[in-house]
Amino acid sequence: MDSKHIEQTFSEVSKTTGWAVDKRISLAVTNIYLGRGQKFDARLHTEAVNVIKKMKDGHLHCDPIYSMLQLLLWC
Question: How many helices (H) and strands (E) does the chain have?
Answer without folding.
Answer: 4, 0
